[in-house]
């Protein structure tokens, strides 16, 4: 299965896919970032083509440019800590071939503005007893596509958002590769 991984940050989810690519049965054809980020460095370190489509340059044409770059090159687009919202044209054209990982139990704590530490802060402040992460297909909405996998973690009474983020991230690093593996096997 040929995949593109889209990143905006540290790329720890990308790293877990790189580490498990053979076991998953996928080949990472390229990494695309919407900003300068360590995720692009990781691609370079592993000899994987990296493409920067700066969101400040492309603005509303970012999705169009993504489609140009990815068309005919990959079977699956993996959003791994990617922060730009893809528009309906690309999510329709790639329907069923874009997945995203979100660090909460969707539909809770999802939607615009809910990303990264904001999520874990909101979960802790809401006094939730559990959280987790969700891998889902990307549709035209934000964090609203069909759910593929979801796994839970406990929220401990005196957890800080950072404690929770660490616990959830460990889970993400297992769940996303597993989801890609399942898609690769069915491909
Ligand atoms: C993390 O908040 C992760 O939960 C989410 O995107 C953020 C960055 O992840 N999926 P990564 O280290 O760039 O993969």
From TrEMBL:
Read off the PANTHER family from this record.
PHOSPHORIBOSYLGLYCINAMIDE FORMYLTRANSFERASE (PTHR43369)
Q: What is the lineage of its organism?
A: Bacteria, Fusobacteriati, Fusobacteriota, Fusobacteriia, Fusobacteriales
Name the active site residues: 102 (proton donor)
Query: What is the name attached to this protein's record?
Result: Phosphoribosylglycinamide formyltransferase
Q: In which pathway does it act?
A: Purine metabolism; IMP biosynthesis via de novo pathway; N(2)-formyl-N(1)-(5-phospho-D-ribosyl)glycinamide from N(1)-(5-phospho-D-ribosyl)glycinamide (10-formyl THF route): step 1/1
Residues under site feature: Raises pKa of active site His: 143
| Residue ranges of domain Formyl transferase N-terminal in the record | 2-180
Which keywords does UniProt give here? Purine biosynthesis, Transferase
Keyword Transferase found:
yes
Q: Which reaction does it catalyse?
A: N(1)-(5-phospho-beta-D-ribosyl)glycinamide + (6R)-10-formyltetrahydrofolate = N(2)-formyl-N(1)-(5-phospho-beta-D-ribosyl)glycinamide + (6S)-5,6,7,8-tetrahydrofolate + H(+)
Q: Which residues bind (6R)-10-formyltetrahydrofolate?
A: 55, 100
Annotated function: Catalyzes the transfer of a formyl group from 10-formyltetrahydrofolate to 5-phospho-ribosyl-glycinamide (GAR), producing 5-phospho-ribosyl-N-formylglycinamide (FGAR) and tetrahydrofolate.
């Amino acid at each position: 299965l040929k995949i593109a991984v889209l990143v905006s940050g540290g790329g720890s989810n990308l790293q877990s896919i790189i580490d498990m690519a053979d076991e998953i049965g996928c080949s990472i054809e390229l990494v695309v970032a919407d900003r300068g980020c360590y995720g692009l460095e990781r691609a370079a370190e592993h000899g994987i083509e990296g493409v920067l489509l700066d969101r400040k340059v492309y603005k509303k044409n970012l999705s169009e440019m993504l489609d140009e770059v990815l068309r005919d090159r990959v079977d699956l687009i993996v959003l791994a800590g990617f922060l730009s919202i893809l528009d309906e044209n690309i999510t329709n054209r790639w329907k069923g071939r874009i997945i995203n990982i979100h660090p909460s139990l969707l539909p809770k704590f999802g939607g615009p503005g809910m990303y990264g530490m904001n999520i874990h802060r909101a979960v802790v402040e809401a006094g939730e007893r559990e959280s987790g992460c969700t891998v889902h297909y990307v549709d035209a909405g934000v964090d609203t596509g069909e759910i593929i996998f979801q796994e839970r973690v406990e929220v401990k009474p005196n957890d800080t958002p950072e404690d929770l983020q660490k616990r959830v991230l460990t889970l993400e690093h297992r769940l996303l590769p597993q989801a890609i593996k399942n898609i690769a096997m069915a491909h």
